[in-house]
Write a structure and sequence with these properties.
Layout (H helix, E strand, L loop, with lengths): L2 H8 L3 H9 L1 H13 L8 H11 L4 E5 L6 E6 L2 E11 L26 H17 L5 E9 L7 H7 L16 E10 L7 E3 L2 E4 L1 E10 L3 E2 L9 H19 L6 E10 L5 E2 L2 E10 L2 H21 L3 E7 L5 E3 L1 H15 L4 E3 L11 H6 L2 E7 L24 H16 L6
Parallel strand pairs: 3-4, 3-5, 5-16, 6-15
Antiparallel strand pairs: 1-2, 2-4, 6-16, 7-14, 8-12, 8-13, 9-11, 10-12
Protein backbone atom coordinates (compact mmCIF):
# COMPACT_ATOMS: atom_id res chain seq x y z
CA UNK A 1 0.00 0.00 0.00
CA UNK A 2 1.34 3.44 -0.91
CA UNK A 3 2.18 6.05 1.70
CA UNK A 4 -0.63 8.21 0.31
CA UNK A 5 -3.13 5.39 0.80
CA UNK A 6 -1.85 4.77 4.35
CA UNK A 7 -2.18 8.46 5.19
CA UNK A 8 -5.72 8.38 3.83
CA UNK A 9 -6.49 5.32 5.95
CA UNK A 10 -4.90 6.43 9.22
CA UNK A 11 -5.01 10.21 8.93
CA UNK A 12 -2.38 12.84 8.05
CA UNK A 13 -0.90 13.10 11.60
CA UNK A 14 0.13 16.75 11.10
CA UNK A 15 -1.35 17.94 14.39
CA UNK A 16 0.05 14.88 16.17
CA UNK A 17 3.57 15.62 14.95
CA UNK A 18 3.16 19.31 15.88
CA UNK A 19 2.09 18.30 19.40
CA UNK A 20 5.05 15.94 19.73
CA UNK A 21 7.38 18.66 18.50
CA UNK A 22 5.98 21.03 21.11
CA UNK A 23 6.81 18.49 23.82
CA UNK A 24 10.40 17.96 22.67
CA UNK A 25 12.03 20.40 25.12
CA UNK A 26 10.31 18.73 28.05
CA UNK A 27 11.29 15.29 26.74
CA UNK A 28 14.94 16.32 26.45
CA UNK A 29 15.01 17.91 29.90
CA UNK A 30 13.58 14.82 31.59
CA UNK A 31 15.81 12.49 29.61
CA UNK A 32 18.94 14.38 30.60
CA UNK A 33 17.96 14.41 34.26
CA UNK A 34 17.29 10.68 34.19
CA UNK A 35 20.59 10.14 32.37
CA UNK A 36 22.51 11.96 35.09
CA UNK A 37 20.90 9.89 37.85
CA UNK A 38 20.71 6.30 36.56
CA UNK A 39 19.56 3.46 38.80
CA UNK A 40 19.85 -0.30 38.42
CA UNK A 41 17.42 -3.15 38.91
CA UNK A 42 13.90 -3.07 40.26
CA UNK A 43 14.37 -0.47 42.98
CA UNK A 44 14.54 2.95 41.28
CA UNK A 45 13.31 5.50 43.84
CA UNK A 46 14.86 8.60 42.26
CA UNK A 47 13.70 7.62 38.79
CA UNK A 48 10.19 6.88 39.98
CA UNK A 49 9.94 10.24 41.75
CA UNK A 50 11.05 12.05 38.60
CA UNK A 51 8.47 10.23 36.49
CA UNK A 52 5.69 10.90 38.98
CA UNK A 53 6.59 14.58 39.07
CA UNK A 54 6.52 14.72 35.27
CA UNK A 55 3.07 13.08 35.22
CA UNK A 56 1.64 15.28 37.96
CA UNK A 57 -1.55 17.06 36.98
CA UNK A 58 -2.53 14.67 34.20
CA UNK A 59 -5.92 12.87 34.38
CA UNK A 60 -4.33 9.51 35.19
CA UNK A 61 -5.17 6.83 37.72
CA UNK A 62 -1.71 5.97 39.04
CA UNK A 63 -0.85 2.69 40.74
CA UNK A 64 2.54 2.36 42.41
CA UNK A 65 3.72 -1.22 42.45
CA UNK A 66 4.95 -2.54 45.77
CA UNK A 67 7.42 -5.27 44.78
CA UNK A 68 9.25 -2.93 42.37
CA UNK A 69 9.40 0.75 41.45
CA UNK A 70 6.96 0.08 38.63
CA UNK A 71 4.30 2.66 37.78
CA UNK A 72 1.00 1.85 36.07
CA UNK A 73 -0.82 4.99 34.90
CA UNK A 74 -4.27 4.59 33.36
CA UNK A 75 -5.83 7.21 31.11
CA UNK A 76 -9.58 6.79 30.63
CA UNK A 77 -11.04 8.39 27.53
CA UNK A 78 -14.39 10.12 27.44
CA UNK A 79 -15.89 7.35 25.31
CA UNK A 80 -16.16 3.59 26.02
CA UNK A 81 -13.79 1.14 24.40
CA UNK A 82 -10.91 -1.30 25.01
CA UNK A 83 -7.53 -0.65 26.62
CA UNK A 84 -4.13 -0.50 24.94
CA UNK A 85 -0.80 -0.79 26.81
CA UNK A 86 2.28 1.33 26.10
CA UNK A 87 5.56 0.28 27.77
CA UNK A 88 8.64 2.30 28.65
CA UNK A 89 11.51 0.78 30.68
CA UNK A 90 13.37 2.87 33.25
CA UNK A 91 16.50 1.06 34.50
CA UNK A 92 20.16 1.53 33.62
CA UNK A 93 23.19 -0.77 33.34
CA UNK A 94 25.98 -1.48 35.81
CA UNK A 95 28.85 0.03 33.82
CA UNK A 96 30.92 3.21 33.54
CA UNK A 97 30.10 6.04 31.14
CA UNK A 98 32.76 7.50 28.85
CA UNK A 99 30.69 9.68 26.51
CA UNK A 100 31.95 13.07 27.70
CA UNK A 101 28.39 14.43 27.60
CA UNK A 102 27.58 17.48 29.70
CA UNK A 103 24.81 15.44 31.31
CA UNK A 104 26.79 12.22 31.77
CA UNK A 105 26.03 9.92 34.67
CA UNK A 106 26.85 11.19 38.14
CA UNK A 107 26.56 7.70 39.65
CA UNK A 108 29.67 5.53 39.58
CA UNK A 109 29.42 2.43 37.40
CA UNK A 110 25.86 3.18 36.35
CA UNK A 111 24.91 4.31 32.86
CA UNK A 112 21.83 4.56 30.67
CA UNK A 113 23.68 2.74 27.91
CA UNK A 114 20.59 1.14 26.41
CA UNK A 115 18.48 4.26 26.00
CA UNK A 116 15.89 3.51 28.65
CA UNK A 117 16.08 7.15 29.73
CA UNK A 118 14.78 8.10 26.28
CA UNK A 119 12.02 5.46 26.44
CA UNK A 120 10.81 6.78 29.78
CA UNK A 121 10.89 10.40 28.66
CA UNK A 122 9.06 9.62 25.41
CA UNK A 123 6.34 7.70 27.23
CA UNK A 124 5.84 10.54 29.71
CA UNK A 125 5.35 12.99 26.88
CA UNK A 126 3.04 10.56 25.08
CA UNK A 127 0.95 10.57 28.26
CA UNK A 128 0.79 14.38 28.05
CA UNK A 129 -0.17 14.28 24.37
CA UNK A 130 -2.88 11.64 24.83
CA UNK A 131 -4.24 13.33 27.93
CA UNK A 132 -4.84 16.44 25.81
CA UNK A 133 -6.88 14.23 23.47
CA UNK A 134 -8.82 12.49 26.23
CA UNK A 135 -12.12 13.69 24.80
CA UNK A 136 -11.47 11.85 21.52
CA UNK A 137 -10.38 8.53 23.02
CA UNK A 138 -12.87 5.63 22.99
CA UNK A 139 -11.26 3.44 25.62
CA UNK A 140 -8.21 3.58 27.84
CA UNK A 141 -4.42 3.76 27.62
CA UNK A 142 -2.28 1.96 30.20
CA UNK A 143 1.18 3.52 30.53
CA UNK A 144 3.60 0.91 31.88
CA UNK A 145 6.72 2.46 33.40
CA UNK A 146 8.82 -0.59 34.08
CA UNK A 147 11.99 -1.16 36.12
CA UNK A 148 14.35 -4.10 35.93
CA UNK A 149 14.46 -4.77 32.19
CA UNK A 150 18.21 -5.39 32.21
CA UNK A 151 18.04 -8.95 33.53
CA UNK A 152 15.85 -8.33 36.58
CA UNK A 153 12.49 -9.52 35.17
CA UNK A 154 10.75 -6.24 35.93
CA UNK A 155 7.91 -6.84 33.48
CA UNK A 156 7.18 -10.26 34.97
CA UNK A 157 7.11 -8.80 38.48
CA UNK A 158 4.66 -6.10 37.40
CA UNK A 159 2.43 -8.69 35.72
CA UNK A 160 2.57 -10.92 38.81
CA UNK A 161 1.47 -7.93 40.89
CA UNK A 162 -1.62 -7.44 38.73
CA UNK A 163 -0.59 -4.99 36.02
CA UNK A 164 -2.89 -6.60 33.44
CA UNK A 165 -5.80 -7.19 35.83
CA UNK A 166 -7.57 -3.93 35.14
CA UNK A 167 -10.78 -2.79 36.80
CA UNK A 168 -13.93 -2.22 34.82
CA UNK A 169 -15.00 1.24 33.80
CA UNK A 170 -16.81 3.41 36.33
CA UNK A 171 -20.12 2.54 34.67
CA UNK A 172 -19.40 -1.18 35.07
CA UNK A 173 -18.62 -1.83 31.41
CA UNK A 174 -15.63 -3.90 30.33
CA UNK A 175 -12.52 -2.33 28.86
CA UNK A 176 -10.24 -5.32 28.18
CA UNK A 177 -6.60 -5.04 27.21
CA UNK A 178 -6.49 -5.79 23.50
CA UNK A 179 -2.99 -4.75 22.46
CA UNK A 180 0.48 -3.70 23.62
CA UNK A 181 3.23 -1.63 22.04
CA UNK A 182 6.81 -0.72 22.94
CA UNK A 183 9.72 1.13 21.39
CA UNK A 184 13.44 0.49 21.73
CA UNK A 185 15.93 3.09 20.55
CA UNK A 186 19.05 1.95 18.73
CA UNK A 187 22.15 3.74 17.49
CA UNK A 188 22.28 1.43 14.46
CA UNK A 189 19.31 3.05 12.68
CA UNK A 190 19.26 6.68 11.49
CA UNK A 191 16.95 9.17 13.17
CA UNK A 192 13.54 9.25 11.52
CA UNK A 193 13.57 5.53 10.78
CA UNK A 194 12.06 2.52 12.52
CA UNK A 195 12.61 -1.22 12.21
CA UNK A 196 10.23 -4.09 12.88
CA UNK A 197 9.37 -7.65 11.91
CA UNK A 198 6.49 -9.99 12.62
CA UNK A 199 7.12 -13.16 14.60
CA UNK A 200 10.26 -13.65 16.65
CA UNK A 201 12.15 -10.36 16.84
CA UNK A 202 14.41 -10.95 19.86
CA UNK A 203 15.88 -14.07 21.42
CA UNK A 204 15.36 -15.88 24.67
CA UNK A 205 18.22 -15.50 27.13
CA UNK A 206 19.31 -18.05 29.74
CA UNK A 207 22.37 -18.35 31.95
CA UNK A 208 24.49 -21.51 31.83
CA UNK A 209 26.64 -22.90 34.64
CA UNK A 210 28.57 -26.16 34.42
CA UNK A 211 30.67 -27.48 37.29
CA UNK A 212 33.13 -30.24 36.37
CA UNK A 213 34.30 -32.22 39.40
CA UNK A 214 37.36 -34.43 39.49
CA UNK A 215 40.17 -35.06 41.96
CA UNK A 216 43.01 -32.62 42.50
CA UNK A 217 46.66 -33.20 43.18
CA UNK A 218 50.24 -32.33 42.24
CA UNK A 219 50.67 -30.89 38.75
CA UNK A 220 53.74 -33.13 38.26
CA UNK A 221 51.62 -36.28 38.60
CA UNK A 222 48.41 -35.77 36.61
CA UNK A 223 47.98 -39.57 36.33
CA UNK A 224 47.22 -39.63 40.04
CA UNK A 225 44.45 -37.05 39.67
CA UNK A 226 41.24 -36.61 37.71
CA UNK A 227 42.04 -33.27 36.09
CA UNK A 228 38.85 -31.26 35.39
CA UNK A 229 40.54 -28.61 33.23
CA UNK A 230 41.02 -30.53 29.97
CA UNK A 231 37.55 -32.02 30.43
CA UNK A 232 36.07 -28.53 30.81
CA UNK A 233 37.92 -27.45 27.65
CA UNK A 234 36.54 -30.44 25.77
CA UNK A 235 33.03 -29.58 26.91
CA UNK A 236 33.41 -26.02 25.64
CA UNK A 237 34.52 -27.24 22.22
CA UNK A 238 31.76 -29.84 22.10
CA UNK A 239 29.09 -27.26 22.86
CA UNK A 240 30.06 -25.36 19.72
CA UNK A 241 29.87 -28.51 17.61
CA UNK A 242 26.57 -29.35 19.24
CA UNK A 243 25.01 -26.11 18.03
CA UNK A 244 26.22 -26.52 14.46
CA UNK A 245 25.32 -30.22 14.20
CA UNK A 246 22.23 -30.69 16.36
CA UNK A 247 20.33 -27.40 15.93
CA UNK A 248 18.40 -26.45 12.82
CA UNK A 249 20.18 -23.55 11.10
CA UNK A 250 16.79 -22.04 10.23
CA UNK A 251 15.71 -22.05 13.89
CA UNK A 252 19.00 -20.87 15.36
CA UNK A 253 20.55 -20.86 18.79
CA UNK A 254 23.75 -19.51 20.30
CA UNK A 255 25.71 -21.01 23.18
CA UNK A 256 28.50 -18.68 24.24
CA UNK A 257 30.94 -19.63 26.98
CA UNK A 258 32.03 -16.34 28.48
CA UNK A 259 33.92 -17.48 31.54
CA UNK A 260 36.02 -20.47 32.65
CA UNK A 261 37.36 -20.62 36.18
CA UNK A 262 39.71 -23.25 37.62
CA UNK A 263 42.72 -23.55 39.83
CA UNK A 264 44.63 -21.41 42.28
CA UNK A 265 48.27 -21.67 41.27
CA UNK A 266 50.62 -23.08 38.57
CA UNK A 267 51.60 -26.37 40.18
CA UNK A 268 48.29 -27.63 41.60
CA UNK A 269 45.64 -29.54 39.68
CA UNK A 270 42.30 -28.33 41.08
CA UNK A 271 39.36 -30.49 42.02
CA UNK A 272 36.81 -28.48 40.07
CA UNK A 273 36.45 -26.29 36.99
CA UNK A 274 33.47 -24.08 36.27
CA UNK A 275 32.03 -22.90 32.97
CA UNK A 276 29.62 -19.99 32.59
CA UNK A 277 27.88 -18.60 29.57
CA UNK A 278 24.67 -17.59 27.87
CA UNK A 279 22.13 -19.45 25.76
CA UNK A 280 20.09 -17.66 23.09
CA UNK A 281 17.31 -19.17 20.96
CA UNK A 282 14.63 -17.97 18.58
CA UNK A 283 11.87 -20.43 19.52
CA UNK A 284 10.63 -22.14 22.65
CA UNK A 285 11.18 -25.51 20.97
CA UNK A 286 14.84 -24.89 20.21
CA UNK A 287 15.38 -23.28 23.59
CA UNK A 288 14.18 -26.44 25.33
CA UNK A 289 16.21 -28.69 23.01
CA UNK A 290 19.42 -26.76 23.65
CA UNK A 291 18.93 -27.06 27.41
CA UNK A 292 18.57 -30.84 27.08
CA UNK A 293 21.56 -31.23 24.78
CA UNK A 294 23.86 -29.17 27.01
CA UNK A 295 23.26 -31.57 29.89
CA UNK A 296 23.85 -34.58 27.63
CA UNK A 297 27.10 -33.18 26.29
CA UNK A 298 28.54 -32.00 29.60
CA UNK A 299 27.68 -35.06 31.64
CA UNK A 300 28.58 -37.47 28.85
CA UNK A 301 32.05 -36.02 28.29
CA UNK A 302 32.73 -35.83 32.01
CA UNK A 303 31.65 -39.45 32.49
CA UNK A 304 33.85 -40.60 29.58
CA UNK A 305 36.87 -39.32 31.54
CA UNK A 306 35.70 -40.68 34.90
CA UNK A 307 34.59 -37.29 36.20
CA UNK A 308 31.18 -35.80 36.91
CA UNK A 309 29.47 -32.63 35.73
CA UNK A 310 26.64 -30.64 37.24
CA UNK A 311 24.62 -28.44 34.89
CA UNK A 312 22.46 -25.54 36.01
CA UNK A 313 20.47 -23.41 33.60
CA UNK A 314 18.93 -20.27 35.04
CA UNK A 315 15.96 -19.25 32.96
CA UNK A 316 16.00 -15.71 31.67
CA UNK A 317 13.62 -14.00 29.25
CA UNK A 318 11.49 -15.90 26.76
CA UNK A 319 11.61 -15.24 23.03
CA UNK A 320 10.10 -11.85 22.14
CA UNK A 321 7.43 -12.56 19.53
CA UNK A 322 5.64 -9.79 17.66
CA UNK A 323 2.10 -10.72 16.74
CA UNK A 324 2.23 -10.75 12.90
CA UNK A 325 -1.07 -8.89 12.50
CA UNK A 326 -0.16 -6.29 15.09
CA UNK A 327 3.32 -5.89 13.59
CA UNK A 328 1.74 -5.26 10.20
CA UNK A 329 -0.56 -2.68 11.74
CA UNK A 330 2.40 -1.03 13.50
CA UNK A 331 4.24 -0.90 10.19
CA UNK A 332 1.29 0.82 8.50
CA UNK A 333 0.87 3.43 11.22
CA UNK A 334 4.61 4.17 11.38
CA UNK A 335 4.86 4.44 7.60
CA UNK A 336 1.94 6.87 7.49
CA UNK A 337 3.83 9.08 9.97
CA UNK A 338 7.46 8.68 8.89
CA UNK A 339 7.02 8.35 5.15
CA UNK A 340 8.11 6.04 2.38
CA UNK A 341 11.13 3.79 2.99
CA UNK A 342 11.48 5.01 6.59
CA UNK A 343 10.08 1.84 8.17
CA UNK A 344 12.23 -1.19 7.41
CA UNK A 345 11.30 -4.83 7.76
CA UNK A 346 14.16 -6.45 9.64
CA UNK A 347 15.43 -9.47 7.70
CA UNK A 348 16.53 -11.31 10.84
CA UNK A 349 15.76 -11.28 14.56
CA UNK A 350 18.15 -9.73 17.06
CA UNK A 351 19.89 -12.12 19.44
CA UNK A 352 19.58 -9.71 22.35
CA UNK A 353 16.67 -10.33 24.74
CA UNK A 354 13.78 -8.25 26.08
CA UNK A 355 11.42 -8.75 28.99
CA UNK A 356 8.60 -7.09 27.03
CA UNK A 357 8.38 -10.72 25.92
CA UNK A 358 6.40 -11.41 29.10
CA UNK A 359 3.77 -8.89 28.01
CA UNK A 360 3.66 -10.25 24.45
CA UNK A 361 3.05 -13.75 25.85
CA UNK A 362 -0.19 -12.39 27.29
CA UNK A 363 -1.29 -9.82 24.72
CA UNK A 364 -1.09 -9.34 20.96
CA UNK A 365 1.35 -6.54 20.28
CA UNK A 366 4.74 -5.53 18.97
CA UNK A 367 8.01 -3.88 19.81
CA UNK A 368 9.62 -1.58 17.24
CA UNK A 369 13.20 -0.34 17.00
CA UNK A 370 13.56 3.46 16.84
CA UNK A 371 16.44 5.06 14.96
CA UNK A 372 18.74 7.18 17.10
CA UNK A 373 22.16 7.35 15.41
CA UNK A 374 24.02 10.45 16.67
CA UNK A 375 24.12 13.28 14.16
CA UNK A 376 27.05 13.01 11.75
CA UNK A 377 27.85 9.41 12.62
CA UNK A 378 27.54 6.29 10.49
CA UNK A 379 24.97 3.81 11.85
CA UNK A 380 27.31 0.97 10.91
CA UNK A 381 30.16 2.29 13.07
CA UNK A 382 28.40 4.28 15.82
CA UNK A 383 28.95 2.96 19.35
CA UNK A 384 26.20 0.38 19.90
CA UNK A 385 23.73 -0.03 22.74
CA UNK A 386 25.46 -1.26 25.93
CA UNK A 387 28.69 0.49 24.97
CA UNK A 388 30.29 2.86 27.48
CA UNK A 389 30.42 5.40 24.63
CA UNK A 390 26.94 4.98 23.15
CA UNK A 391 24.99 8.17 22.44
CA UNK A 392 21.59 8.83 20.90
CA UNK A 393 20.33 11.76 18.87
CA UNK A 394 17.63 13.37 20.98
CA UNK A 395 15.70 14.36 17.85
CA UNK A 396 14.61 10.72 17.83
CA UNK A 397 12.40 11.38 20.84
CA UNK A 398 9.96 13.55 18.91
CA UNK A 399 9.53 10.61 16.53
CA UNK A 400 9.10 8.22 19.43
CA UNK A 401 6.44 10.32 21.14
CA UNK A 402 4.54 10.46 17.86
CA UNK A 403 4.74 6.69 17.41
CA UNK A 404 3.64 5.90 20.97
CA UNK A 405 0.65 8.22 20.70
CA UNK A 406 -0.27 7.19 17.17
CA UNK A 407 -0.23 3.49 18.00
CA UNK A 408 -2.58 4.04 20.93
CA UNK A 409 -4.95 6.25 18.98
CA UNK A 410 -5.12 4.02 15.93
CA UNK A 411 -5.53 0.85 17.99
CA UNK A 412 -8.52 2.49 19.64
CA UNK A 413 -9.90 3.55 16.27
CA UNK A 414 -9.08 7.28 16.35
CA UNK A 415 -7.90 8.74 13.06
CA UNK A 416 -4.73 10.79 13.25
CA UNK A 417 -4.90 14.49 12.64
Amino acid sequence: MSVEALIEQHGPSRELRDQARGLQDAAVALRRSLHQHPEIGNDLPVTRDQVLEALDGLPLDVTLHKTTSGIAALLTGDKPGPTVLLRGDMDALAMPEDTGLDFASKNANMMHACGHDTHTSMLVQAAHLLSDRKGDIPGRVLFMFQPGEEGHHGARHMIDEGLLDLPKNVDGSDSPLTGAFALHITSTLPVGMAGIRGGAIMASSDQLEIRVKGAGGHASAPHLTSDPIPVACEIVQALQSMVTRRIDAFDPAIVTVARINAGTTYNVIPETASIEGTIRAMSAKTRSKVHELISQVAMGIAAAHGLSAEVEIHLGYPVTVNDPTFAGFSTEVATSILGDKKVVQLPNPVMAAEDFSYVLERLPGSIMFLGGTPSGQNPATAAPNHSNRVMFDEDAMEVGVSLYAAMALRHLGVRLS
